Amino acid sequence: MSASPQEHKIITRRFSAQLAVSEYIARFRRADYFLSLCRECTNFGSRYGCPPFDYDVLERMQRYTTATIIGVQIMPEEKKLPLQMAQELMAPVIRELTQELLTEEKRTGGLSFGFAGGCSLCGDKPCARITGEPCRHPDRVRSSLESYGFDLAKTSEELFNTPILWSRNGYIPDYLMLICGIFS
Ligand code: SF4
Question: Residue 177: how many CA atoms within 13 Å on its side-chain side?
Fold first, then answer.
């Protein structure tokens, strides 16, 4: 991937790893722990794509054999950007990756994953899940690997040899890390 055309330039570096779904689950999934974190979030039960799910997550994943995990390291050229700008820096990368994974999912019949955080496709409208209506964009909403119980800090360290960095003092760290993937 190249530098972003947006105002704040970024350099991106892409990682990819392939392993058996069974191995990814055995080594990187801590379902109870991550579900307990999701329960603390306001999106829990109020966004399609977020837990709790009305299907058996493990059974769904076990229909697939190969996990392709993708990481993108996003390095802003400017230092000391406020943390509030993280979403703006990540947005074009998320858009590109989402499109790529949805296309791949369609081509292979796989299961793609999205990114952590509540779905914002409906803008200011409340999510249809709150009123029990069907999702308005089911073709584009995908759950994150975290919401299926995967440890992305461990994923990043062990599969990409690159730790996830956290913000300090309200600034974006040296890089941001996005992790997604597709099971096929
Ligand atoms: S697309 Fe709309 S209805 Fe579907 S999960 Fe996102 S916010 Fe909810």
Answer: 21
Q: Nearest residue CA, atom 5 of ligand 1?
A: 48
> 91, 115, 89: which is closest to 173 by C-alpha?
89
Does 159 fall in a domain? yes
Domain hosting residue 101, numbered range: 10-183
Token look-up 């794509």 returns 49
pLDDT at 7 over 80: no
Instruction: Report the domain count for the chain.
Output: 1
In a domain, 71, yes or no: yes
Q: How far apart are CA 16 and CA 180, in angstroms?
A: 10
Pairwise CA distance, residues 127 & 123, whole Å: 9
- The verdict on residue 4 lying in a domain is no
Residues with CB under 6 A from ligand 1: 47-49, 119, 121-122, 127-129, 135-137, 141
* Position 113 in a domain: yes
Q: Which of 93, 133, 137 is nearest to 115 (CA)?
A: 93
Q: How far is the CA of 25 from the centre of ligand 1 (A)?
A: 27
What's the pTM? 0.92
Pocket test for ligand 1, best of 119, 120, 144 (most atoms within 8 A of CB): 119
CA distance 181 to 67: 7
Per the model's pLDDT, the better-predicted residue between 168 and 81 turns out to be 81
